[in-house]
Amino acid sequence: MTPARGDHDARRTEVSMAVWRVLAERGFQGLTLRAVAAEMGASTGLLTHYFPSKRALLKHALDVLEQQAAERPRPAAERAGDAKGLAMLRAVLLDILPLDRENADGNRIWVSSWDVALADPELAAEHAERYRRARENMTRLVADAQRLGELPADRPAGDLAAAAQSFVLGLVVQALFAPQEFPPARQTELLDAYLAGLAAG
Amino acid sequence: MTPARGDHDARRTEVSMAVWRVLAERGFQGLTLRAVAAEMGASTGLLTHYFPSKRALLKHALDVLEQQAAERPRPAAERAGDAKGLAMLRAVLLDILPLDRENADGNRIWVSSWDVALADPELAAEHAERYRRARENMTRLVADAQRLGELPADRPAGDLAAAAQSFVLGLVVQALFAPQEFPPARQTELLDAYLAGLAAG
């Protein structure tokens, strides 16, 4: 007898949560069928039912990561409400930074995923597409800010967005490695100074 | 009879080169004793003589990475000669970017190393120290540029250096994932626009 659909979905959720906890603690480097099984108190045999290969486990982990990213809290964007242009761009960029523990955990897993993704052309393409979509969103906000006269219009919005995304991604990496040198207040100051520089043109 | 010192050193170099090739092809995710042994055409047993544990192999790989980074070509800094201030800061930042294949390989391994390093407090501290030293060097160049009047002096040199390092690290990540969207010319333009923004204050 195969398990009822509801049981199956519940078990999948349980597997996904165990994958997330292993990633948060050990990164992709530590993601093995054995580690996930141990986290669930289940057998490795059960896990091979879900993941016939290491690559299947990696692909699932990247899906879990994307889903968690989609659902993560966005306090700055919430505070910004229906603000437009530069204010919303600032909120979107702020919400990427590891300003609290939960976000730091999520970012740590993203940074960790770059190793796996760069080693596999298909996964690299998927990651590239995720960052391209994020840049598109930022490009729209930059274009709004340019229309509102908040950012100079003499550079393509796509270039400003790519530059802002680069700045924030690099700041994430620095802050993960040196949280004492990059406490939340300093991350915010650096971002604000960056945006002020863009605005000054 | 133990091998002569020269043999031992030659073998260590051979091991280090095999580690580097495995990293360039598969990242830290793919770095195993077995992969290094296969790359050398040697037995896994021989490798355990050098690396009693996976962690010992990782630590050695990070040392190899640091040594390769120290010895990598720096064409922009060479062209800059004994330039000072902003011109040398630009050269140092340009030489970090994946503007050619060899640099892209090196950067790909650095990015890949972040997963391993973040999972291990000691390795994370060593990586943090490497980035801190790089920031110190950039801070010195920023301070020179401020003295020369090339960069505004109203922000601490350390903040400008941290911001520039963030920008470049994030651009490296973007360019590795989307080399077609970030060809060398665009990377250089984005960096120049960034530095122009700093100079404009």
From TrEMBL, chains A, B:
Gene3D superfamilies in the record: Tetracycline Repressor, domain 2 (1.10.357.10)
Protein name: AcrR family transcriptional regulator
Source organism superkingdom: Bacteria
SUPFAM superfamilies named in the record: Homeodomain-like, Tetracyclin repressor-like, C-terminal domain
Annotated region of DNA binding: 32-51
Every HTH tetR-type domain range: 9-69
Keywords: DNA-binding, Repressor, Transcription, Transcription regulation
